[in-house]
Design a protein that fits this description.
With about 500 residues, this protein is of the alpha+beta class. It has three domains: about 120 residues, Glutaredoxin (3-Layer(aba) Sandwich); about 270 residues, 3-Layer(aba) Sandwich (Rossmann fold), CATH 3.40.50; about 35 residues. The protein contains eleven helices and 24 strands. The strands form seven sheets. Strands 8-7-9-10-24-23-20-17 form an eight-stranded mixed sheet. Strands 2-1-5-6 form a four-stranded mixed sheet, covered by helices on one side. Helix 6 packs across helix 9. It is globular. The protein starts with a helix and ends in a 5-residue tail after the last helix.
């Protein structure tokens, strides 16, 4: 091959590369092999993009010198924005800014609500801290929405799409948070409010102060009422539901006090008989589940006090869900001191759907009773089988969701509010979205893998797996060495006999 032909072939290859790059610029696509199609746009996102009436500018504030484990986070975010821009037909544009480049750009990022996070970086055997920025702002006309932190592994599509939805609508639909019967106020549920505020305006609502429930409420939210409710108030809610309204209820029908060691019934506020008339029974027993969370217990060992973790069946860890939009993507919730739901046939116009179940190893404890936190639980304590602890009712355009725990989505007030798990909040948010929202964004909130809890196994199986992991590799190496030694001996014997094949 002469020099001329070599140059021609190199030119052809370069031309193919240039043309391929030009075509890929116009025909951008990605292949998504993830388990939950994390990088494939949902129909909800496509609908939100099509409804944009104007231009949205996305400014991504990302540091350039990120450690290797965070570089993929930036690349994933940029890939997502490229796809949003391509699908929007010019209604979405974006740019990347490096705040670490100058004090002016860093000040701009902070003024726009993007705060730095401190990241430990190891260089030359020394640990240094880096001020890193990983956030974005979206602007449309005079409206601005901030994504303060793009977290690695988080549901980016949900963060971007909901921010687009929020910035592109001037008036958000309203939700009514029922007050007046001992419920927690808005300040006591900041995690839930943070999620709901993306699409809704949530405002306190007192049933007793109005002649009827306003029809503009997409849904009512009723969390952990403690005081008795007048039948006239239930009649107002019934009229609202008959006109296509919705209701989310998180209610503790039984109540436990871990500090005092006492389990007791709560005072019936009227919900039991009201729901019984709709075909749902709120039962009075406590659920105990072998699949449960642990609590911290102090134990005396001689002169010392030792803190230890003890499994506590009154705190069921729930990961058995009905296939339903509300539970899509949720992997585990905690319902401390919960009670079961059953169904009756008093009103067959309401269709009934279980949503959340306990495990098969479940028992029921009547109240009142005392807690023995040191009790050694056996299989005989869990004879009741699977129980329903959350369910939905539907009739025409009306929807109701009931969760049998009034505190699972409540943080509380004061100096030390309790942080709830992401899936606890997602279950409440998804329930309200299913009732109040028809955009399909409910499916995006839990898109992505958050956790993969191990299935419950017997102690003998755990022991076998433990020692199998230790000795199996050693045994495989010994077997390989033995087989290799035998082959070499056979080969040596053939050579000694003059057979060199």
């Amino acid at each position: 091959m002469n020099r001329k032909n070599i140059f021609i072939q190199i030119g052809i290859v370069l031309a193919i590369i240039v043309v391929a790059n030009l075509i890929s610029n116009e025909l951008y696509f990605r292949l998504d092999f993830t388990e939950e199609n994390q990088y494939t746009f949902s129909e909800a996102t496509k609908d939100v993009i099509e409804e944009i009436d104007g231009v949205i500018t996305i400014t991504a504030y990302f540091s350039e010198d990120l450690p290797p484990q965070l570089l993929s986070n930036k690349q994933d975010f940029e890939d997502q924005l490229v796809e949003y821009e391509n699908r929007s037909g010019g209604n979405i544009i974006f740019e990347f800014v490096n705040p670490n480049e100058s004090e002016e750009k860093e000040r701009e990022a902070q003024q726009n609500g993007i705060s730095p996070v401190m990241i430990n970086v190891t260089e030359r055997d020394q640990v240094q801290q880096l001020r890193a920025y990983m956030g974005a702002t979206l602007k449309m006309e005079d409206r601005t929405e901030v994504i303060p932190l793009i977290q690695p592994g988080a549901a980016m599509e949900y963060a971007i799409t909901t921010a687009i939805k929020k910035v592109s609508i001037a008036d958000k639909p309203k939700l009514g948070l029922i007050q007046g019967y001992g419920e927690p106020n808005i300040q006591a549920i900041p995690q839930l409010m943070e999620q709901l505020s993306v699409l809704y305006d949530v405002e306190p609502f007192r049933i007793a102060d109005t002649m009827s429930v306003p029809s503009y409420y997409r849904s009512l939210i009723w969390i952990n009422p403690k005081d008795s409710v007048n039948p006239a108030e239930f009649a107002k809610i019934d009229r609202y539901l008959n006109n296509g309204g919705g209701l989310f209820v998180a209610h503790s029908n039984v109540e436990g006090d871990l500090q005092q060691g006492l389990l007791s019934n709560t005072t019936d506020v009227g919900l039991k008989s009201w729901f019984a008339g709709k075909g749902m029974n709120l039962q009075d027993q406590f659920v105990i589940d072998a699949q449960c969370a642990s609590v911290n217990v102090q134990q005396r060992k001689g002169f010392f006090t030792i803190n230890s973790q003890v499994e506590f069946p009154y705190f069921p860890q729930l990961n058995n869900f009905e296939d339903h939009p509300i539970t899509q993507g949720i992997e585990g919730v905690l319902f401390p001191f919960t009670s079961p739901i059953s169904f009756n046939n008093q009103d067959t116009s309401w269709s009934q759907t279980p949503l959340v179940y306990t495990s098969e190893r479940t028992g029921l404890v009547g109240a009142p009773t005392y807690i023995d936190i040191q009790k050694k639980w056996t299989n005989a304590d869990f004879p009741a089988g699977q129980q329903i602890v959350a369910a939905a009712l539907e009739k025409m355009n009306s929807k109701i969701v009931v969760a049998m725990n009034g505190a699972f989505c409540v943080n509380g007030e004061g100096q030390r509010p309790q942080q709830q798990s992401a899936d606890n909040i997602n279950l409440a948010s998804n329930s309200i979205d299913w009732i109040a929202d028809d955009t399909g964004l409910i499916n995006l909130r839990t898109k992505g893998i958050t956790s993969r809890p191990l299935e419950e196994t017997e102690d003998s199986t755990k022991l076998m797996l433990k020692y199998g992991n230790v000795f199996a590799p050693i045994l495989l190496i010994l077997i390989y060495a033995f087989v290799r030694k035998q082959r070499l001996q056979r080969k040596r014997q053939r050579w000694m006999q003059g057979n060199y094949e």
